[in-house]
């Protein structure tokens, strides 16, 4: 009988893990530098040097400084969109949005902490809010995300987002609450994921009675 040989990791798997570690290290180094000495004052060479890689290696992962600033936020948004897409069709639109946020926060904390400390995530949020060039980018990204969410909600409700304003109105209200909750969290002392989750839950609870409607029933009533 042949003696079994130990299983070894596939080279491709090792390469991917090494690439992920390098990417994560670049994100952490960049955010540490940005929050310590300012976004504008930090160069890509400094970020690369902090991770002991070349500038060329940096550009394999990020096209510019802007991309690395929003890398973790992009991960959080992707997790939210994934969860929203998976919500049951029977849920009312606001309920689906609220549930997606809560479920996403349940596991996104660990994902953030696998890349950067949550405390650094909070400091980065403050840095973005105080850097005019990044505020403009943040607003543009938020607008694009809102449109993506509105179209997703419209598909769930079998509505045409270009003729029915309700998906965009709902998402605008939802996004406004999320921005306020994020701002309050960013200005606070508790930088835990549990803190922002509870703060978000509390703020969303305040808008539910006002706009959590059965759209189809309301629409039928309007036509009678």
Automatic annotation (TrEMBL):
Residues 43-62 bind DNA. Keywords: DNA-binding, Transcription, Transcription regulation. Residues 20-80 form the HTH tetR-type domain. It comes from the Bacteria. Residues 1-21 are annotated as: Disordered. One of its GO terms (molecular function) is transcription cis-regulatory region binding. This is TetR family transcriptional regulator.
């Amino acid at each position: 009988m042949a003696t079994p040989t130990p299983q070894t990791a596939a080279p491709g798997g090792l390469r991917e893990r090494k690439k992920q570690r390098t990417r994560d290290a670049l994100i952490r180094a960049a955010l540490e530098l940005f929050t310590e000495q300012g976004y504008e004052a930090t160069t890509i060479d400094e970020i690369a040097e902090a991770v002991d890689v070349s500038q060329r290696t940096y550009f394999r992962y990020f096209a510019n400084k802007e991309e690395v600033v929003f890398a973790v936020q992009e991960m959080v948004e992707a997790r939210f969109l994934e969860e929203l897409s998976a919500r049951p069709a029977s849920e009312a639109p606001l309920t689906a949005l609220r549930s997606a946020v809560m479920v996403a926060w349940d596991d996104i904390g660990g994902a953030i902490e696998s890349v950067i400390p949550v405390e650094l995530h909070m400091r980065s949020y403050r840095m973005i809010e105080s850097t005019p060039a990044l505020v403009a980018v943040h607003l543009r990204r938020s607008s694009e995300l809102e449109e993506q969410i509105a179209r997703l909600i419209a598909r769930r409700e079998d509505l045409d987002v270009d003729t029915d304003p309700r998906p965009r109105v709902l998402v605008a209200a939802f996004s406004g609450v999320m921005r306020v909750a994020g701002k309050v969290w960013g200005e606070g002392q508790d930088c835990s994921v549990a803190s922002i989750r509870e703060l978000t839950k509390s703020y969303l609870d305040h808008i539910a009675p006002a706009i959590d409607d059965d759209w189809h029933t309301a629409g039928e009533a309007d036509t009678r």
